[in-house]
């Protein structure tokens, strides 16, 4: 894919990551490898210092025709070969012999993949931290904003919106943890030559490898990983996990924003969230686009994992199968996180509507509270299952506003619980358990990482 703007890019390639994984970024990353390799070789005494300087001076992506490199890639099956040839033609003749010394095409592209991924993950990390900060703010502000919990899409015992936001925060923090680990430990330089022995560098292989990793800011691997692709698998898994965390939040927001629920909404700039045919619509468009971008991830992760079996010392096809899905996965993940950030910046919470929805079943979502209290005050005379069954019968018999009266009139329930106590038990704010402590724990966990 070119760096130009495609028809769907504004939707599915939004945010800073898209540019960081585009064609020009890849070419620059490959040239960064070649420049760093020359400098590392010079530092190890394998090539003259002047040659390294000459090679590095020609490692600017804007000097190369990306379209021509792509067209020439079919000759050897990858774009590194044409780029090395073009670089060699650009450098001074006395330095030409030292271009790409000791490396193979896969070294260039695998290392470029790590460089591109590192830059993309840095941008992704920044957007995720912004999301986490906003979620922590929502969790704190709405710690006491009671809303209906929902189980299997039906109303369940109450929660607070702060607890909901804290749960969302947990998913984002977990994604940040994985991204931090990948950035710190798993983005490694690739340098092994034709079959992973660096034989063409004779005794200079390891010193050049070490210096190359240092100059590129990548991990120095124990040995070349041409056909050991756990790094790619871990990157894929982490990006998939991130998209899963985003998709969960986006899905919840789109559900809570439904007309019939209306507990949250997005307040974007004029014109955002509209419809091509329905003038009244106010769609949570950023949440929708976050979900749509995140939905690309599972198939891309699966492709990268299925390409993990690389035969012998260098694979035929499996390595090539990784390029496009890795780019698309980084781009889609970046877009999903970008749109989540926009969504959270626009998000408006409606506590009054939450209360209306809480009261819409006449207290039936507190039936569990009544059953537990009945078991407790009867001192075992009414068992847990019996209490649950008794309360369920009352719920089925009750109208929208008379559950407390029906419960009080029941021979068994009324024997142990009077009408006043039943009314207290049906107050949502009185059945929140450890909600406050869970929110506090989530916020403390996030604060400890800042």
Q: Any overview of this molecule?
A:
This protein is mainly α and 450 residues long. It has two domains: 9-355, Fumarase C, Chain A, domain 2 (Up-down Bundle); 363-425. Helices cover 61% and strands 4% of the residues. It has 22 helices and four strands. The protein has helices at 9-12, 17-20, 23-43, 49-56, 66-72, 80-90, 93-96, 105-141, 161-186, 205-216, 230-256, 285-294, 297-306, 318-321, 323-346, 351-359, 367-377, 384-397, 403-409, 411-416, 419-425, 435-447, and strands spanning 146-151, 154-160, 264-266, 347-349. It has a two-stranded antiparallel sheet. Strands 3-4 form a two-stranded antiparallel ribbon. Helix 9 (161-186) packs parallel to helix 22 (435-447) and helix 11 (230-256) packs antiparallel against helix 13. The chain is elongated, with a radius of gyration of 29 Å.
Provide the descriptors you would attach to this structure in a database record.
two-stranded antiparallel sheet; mainly alpha; Fumarase C, Chain A, domain 2; 22 helices; single chain; 450 residues; elongated
What is the tally of beta strands? 4
CA-to-CA gap between the ends? 37 Å
Superfamily at the CATH H level of the largest domain? Answer: Fumarase/aspartase (Central domain)
Annotation field: number of helices: 22
Would you tell me the overall average pLDDT?
94
Q: In percent, how much strand structure appears in the residues?
A: under 5%
Number of self-contained structural domains: 2
Largest sheet: 2 strands, antiparallel
CATH topology of the largest domain: Fumarase C, Chain A, domain 2
Instruction: Output the structural class.
Output: mainly alpha
CATH architecture grouping of the largest domain: Up-down Bundle
């Amino acid at each position: 894919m070119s760096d130009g703007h495609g028809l769907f890019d504004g939707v599915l390639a939004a945010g800073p990551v898209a540019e960081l994984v585009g064609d020009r970024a890849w070419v620059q990353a490959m040239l960064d490898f070649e420049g760093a390799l020359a400098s590392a070789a010079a530092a190890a005494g394998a090539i003259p210092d002047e040659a390294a300087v000459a090679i590095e001076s020609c490692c600017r992506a804007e000097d190369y025709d990306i379209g021509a490199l792509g067209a020439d890639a079919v000759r050897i099956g990858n774009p590194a070969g044409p780029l090395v040839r073009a670089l060699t033609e650009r450098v001074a003749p006395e330095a030409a012999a030292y271009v790409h010394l000791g490396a193979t095409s896969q070294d260039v592209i695998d290392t470029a993949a790590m460089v591109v991924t590192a830059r993309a993950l840095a941008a992704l990390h920044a957007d995720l931290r912004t999301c986490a900060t906003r979620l922590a703010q929502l969790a704190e502000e709405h710690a006491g904003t009671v809303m209906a919990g929902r189980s299997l899409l039906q109303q369940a015992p109450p929660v607070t919106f702060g607890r909901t936001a804290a749960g969302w925060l947990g998913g984002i923090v977990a994604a940040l943890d994985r991204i931090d680990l990948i950035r710190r430990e798993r983005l490694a330089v690739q340098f092994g030559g034709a079959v992973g022995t660096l034989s063409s560098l004779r005794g200079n292989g390891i010193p050049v490898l070490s210096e190359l990793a240092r100059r590129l800011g990548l991990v120095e691997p124990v040995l070349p990983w041409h056909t050991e692709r756990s790094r790619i698998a871990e990157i894929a898994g982490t990006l998939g996990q991130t998209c899963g965390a985003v998709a969960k939040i986006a899905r919840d927001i789109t559900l809570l924003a439904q007309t019939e629920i209306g507990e949250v909404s997005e307040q974007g700039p004029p014109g955002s969230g509209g419809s091509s045919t329905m003038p009244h619509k106010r769609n949570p468009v950023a949440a929708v686009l976050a979900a749509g971008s995140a939905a690309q991830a599972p198939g891309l992760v699966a492709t990268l994992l299925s390409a993990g079996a690389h035969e012998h010392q260098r694979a035929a096809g499996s390595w090539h199968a990784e390029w496009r899905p890795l780019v698309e996965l980084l781009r889609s993940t970046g877009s999903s996180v970008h749109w989540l950030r926009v969504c959270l910046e626009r998000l408006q919470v409606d506590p009054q509507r939450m209360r209306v929805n809480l009261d819409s079943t006449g207290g039936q979502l507190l039936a569990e509270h009544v059953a537990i209290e009945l078991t407790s005050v009867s001192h075992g005379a009414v068992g847990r299952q019996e209490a649950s069954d008794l309360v369920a019968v009352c719920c089925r018999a009750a109208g929208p506003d008379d559950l407390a009266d029906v419960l009080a009139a029941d021979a068994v329930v009324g024997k142990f619980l009077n009408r006043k106590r039943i009314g207290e038990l049906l107050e949502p704010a009185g059945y929140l358990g450890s909600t406050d402590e869970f929110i506090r724990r989530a916020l403390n966990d996030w604060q400890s990482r800042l």
